[in-house]
Q: What sequence folds into this?
């Protein structure tokens, strides 16, 4: 049996539904007559609530309910939101101040929820919001990414959320003292507003004694469990569903107050209650991404071999702990700290800082783009300062193929890799040898041209366990139930394709069922590039169980030993018999024989180790020195994703990730003023990448199949973003280096780049 599929580029079957307007998104499917929720948010970044009078709003036309924290607590609800905290260097836990669902006497960021209004229409809810009397006494805002300033929480002196350390601090300091070359580079990884195509939304509807909550998230089980905890219900009394989801990128993986508020309101009113964010509301209240400042130091010996690596980081948490905000720049950053290099002496220290801004959590890559950006940009600067070729410096320090399996300094067991092969391939594909001529042509046109390389590695994350179930239906079709959730990745295609590859069941006769906690008892959801690898491993185990069960059934039916029955990916074969039924035909036979036990098969697996996708990105940019405009002219990607099920879908994932990286590198910039007011809360002020900002990309793979799963796969969903930040930054640095510019910082907006050039010319 082919355990890794046939690697065919099959078009996405779900696209027909999406492109013809038949997608089932949460705001489209909210039941007719649903009441509408509206969140009253703080317009002050930091202050004490002196007055909160909702009396007049409650009497407003069409209003059914107005909630404040007082009502939630009076009902005996659990009003604090959960969050995972990091472990400090001294072994204690990071700060865990309460994050209330609605503000408790004090607001800490613009956009914090203060009250929730439920009315017949959204217009009536907004009218009622104008009637709420709110008086907030301003407090000083802390927006600087540094300790100190106005204190947000008693639990966090100097606004320090955590003080995390990983590695050998003393060993690094000793190695740097004796190093032949020491290179230190400061850099900022700018805050991102995720801006998924579909903003956040949800609705809640009573179903008898139970409650159904539909949310456009990245998995249903956390939502179900948290809603049950919040409302003091049994998990069995809550059904959570995810319909079609228009992008999530980690931001929609976490819980938000609005889901809890809709759920409670629906219970109180015994009506459907729906809420949908608008774009500016999303920009104020969605978890942001990145926002950290790092100083990296590399030590090299006389042969330019790495001897030590140190990173000091200050990471913005926003006003509260988001659900997984603290581990992003600590635990997850550390997993790929040393990248693809043979270096064991490393140390990272990260301070998490509370500020009067929106919370920061996972954004496509969740810690791995941040770590790789720091390392790969520092490697590039180091090569320039030492006068060596950046490509050769990487080659000199790569982990070699004969060193695998390799335990990294981050205690990650890299199983396989051939980084030199990938680098050589991209060197040819990106036409590095022709770059000098292209640079000369750009200079003749009055432009500066630069080429940037990034070699990344990442670790797939999320739960290593997953379940798959296959049901054979009476109409001659099959359904596969999965524990992940599609947010645009093409899961309906790839999961059906894989099951078809392994069973011979035509893909158009397979329905992929996802996103319903009543239908799927448990699942890990989507995130960390886990979905296809972990889910299809569970599918393989389920297929094996199906084959074993059907083989025993056929052997019994035909009166032959079980060893005489085999399956060749398409048909069962019985020694000495002309009977060659397909799996669907055997399912019909089992149904006729009353063997319903064979018609629904489920298996749960756990991967013992994670896979490590890696690859190289090369970008070329042109810079107009008169205007500062940066244009990405060429972009090449060679990835090692192991074996692929659907190369076309993998390429699409890489394209999307690269575009998000280009957006962060060139134009996306979140700005708060000194009072904590968000100045970039609309697309008039926050620049997103557009089609003409992105060149046609070349993508291909050089596979070294993973040893950690039976398919030899490595995750691909976040790799594009992981590699893009350093590739673009290094290209801009290359373009500006000969003009004397040092210390380039994202985003490379025209004004910022122009000013860099003016500063060195002055």
A:
């Amino acid at each position: 049996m082919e355990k890794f599929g046939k690697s065919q580029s099959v078009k996405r079957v779900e696209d027909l539904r999406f492109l013809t307007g038949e997608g089932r998104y949460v705001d489209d499917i909210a039941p007719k007559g649903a009441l509408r929720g509206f969140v009253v948010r703080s317009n002050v970044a930091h202050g004490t609530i002196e007055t909160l009078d909702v009396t007049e709003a409650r009497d407003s036309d069409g209003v059914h309910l107005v909630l404040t924290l007082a009502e939630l607590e009076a009902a005996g609800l659990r009003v604090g939101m959960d969050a995972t905290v990091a472990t400090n260097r001294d072994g204690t836990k990071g700060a865990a101040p309460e994050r209330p669902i609605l503000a408790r006497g004090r607001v800490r960021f613009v956009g914090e929820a203060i009250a929730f209004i439920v009315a017949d229409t959204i217009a009536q809810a907004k009218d009622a919001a104008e009637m709420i009397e709110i008086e907030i006494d301003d407090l000083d805002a802390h927006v600087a990414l540094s300790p100190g300033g106005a204190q947000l929480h008693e639990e966090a002196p100097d606004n320090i959320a955590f003080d995390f350390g990983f590695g050998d601090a003393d060993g690094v300091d000793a190695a740097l003292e004796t190093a032949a070359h020491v290179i230190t580079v400061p850099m900022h990884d700018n805050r991102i507003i995720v801006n998924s195509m579909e903003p956040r939304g949800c609705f809640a509807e009573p179903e008898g004694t139970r409650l159904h909550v539909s949310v456009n998230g990245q998995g249903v089980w956390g939502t179900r469990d948290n809603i049950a905890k919040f409302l003091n219900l049994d998990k069995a009394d809550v059904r959570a569903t995810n319909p079609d989801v228009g992008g999530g990128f980690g931001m929609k993986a976490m819980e938000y107050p609005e889901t809890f508020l809709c759920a409670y309101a629906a219970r109180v009113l015994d009506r459907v209650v729906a809420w949908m964010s608008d774009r500016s509301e999303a920009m104020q209240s969605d978890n942001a991404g990145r926002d950290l400042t790092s100083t990296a130091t590399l030590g090299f010996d006389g042969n330019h071999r790495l001897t030590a690596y140190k990173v000091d980081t200050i990471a913005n948490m926003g006003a509260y702990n988001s659900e997984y905000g603290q581990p992003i720049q600590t635990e997850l950053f550390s997993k790929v700290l040393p990248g693809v290099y043979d270096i064991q002496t490393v140390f990272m220290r990260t301070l998490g800082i509370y500020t009067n801004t929106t919370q920061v959590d996972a954004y496509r890559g969740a810690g791995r783009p941040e770590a790789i950006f720091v390392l790969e940009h520092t490697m590039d600067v180091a090569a320039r300062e030492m006068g060596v070729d950046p490509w050769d410096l990487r080659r000199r320090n790569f982990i070699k193929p004969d060193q695998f399996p390799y335990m990294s300094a981050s205690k990650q067991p890299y199983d396989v890799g051939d980084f030199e092969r990938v680098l050589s391939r991209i060197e040819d594909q990106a036409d590095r040898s022709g770059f000098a001529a292209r640079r000369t042509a750009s200079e003749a046109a009055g432009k500066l041209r630069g080429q940037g390389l990034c070699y990344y590695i990442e670790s797939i994350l999320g739960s290593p366990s997953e379940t798959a179930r296959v049901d054979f239906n009476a109409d001659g079709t099959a359904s596969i139930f999965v524990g992940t959730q599609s947010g645009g990745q093409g899961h309906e295609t790839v999961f059906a394709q894989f099951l078809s590859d392994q069973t011979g069941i035509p893909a158009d006769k397979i329905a992929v069922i996802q996103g319903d906690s009543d239908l799927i008892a448990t699942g890990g959801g989507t995130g960390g590039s886990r979905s296809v690898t972990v889910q299809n491993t569970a599918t393989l185990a389920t297929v094996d169980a199906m084959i074993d069960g059907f083989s025993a059934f056929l052997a019994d039916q035909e009166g032959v030993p079980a060893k005489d029955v085999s399956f060749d990916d398409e048909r069962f074969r019985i020694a000495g018999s002309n009977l060659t039924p397909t799996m669907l035909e055997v399912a019909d036979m089992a149904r006729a024989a009353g063997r319903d036990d064979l018609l629904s098969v489920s298996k749960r697996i756990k991967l013992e180790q994670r896979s490590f996708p890696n690859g190289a990105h090369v970008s070329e940019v042109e810079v107009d020195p008169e205007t500062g405009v940066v244009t990405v002219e060429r972009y090449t990607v060679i990835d090692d994703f192991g074996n692929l099920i659907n190369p076309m879908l993998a390429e699409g994932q890489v394209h999307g990730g690269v575009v998000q990286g280009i957006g962060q590198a060139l134009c996306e910039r979140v700005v708060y003023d000194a009072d904590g007011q968000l100045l970039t809360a609309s697309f008039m002020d926050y620049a997103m990448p557009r089609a003409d900002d992105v060149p046609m990309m070349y993508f291909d793979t050089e596979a070294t199949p993973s040893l950690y799963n039976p398919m030899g796969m490595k995750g691909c969903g976040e790799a594009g973003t992981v590699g893009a930040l350093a590739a673009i930054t290094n290209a801009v640095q290359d373009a500006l280096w000969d003009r004397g510019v040092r210390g380039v910082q994202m985003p490379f907006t025209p004004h910022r780049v122009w000013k860099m050039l003016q500063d060195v010319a002055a």
Summary: The radius of gyration is 27 Å. The mean pLDDT is 96. The chain has 20 helices and 27 strands.
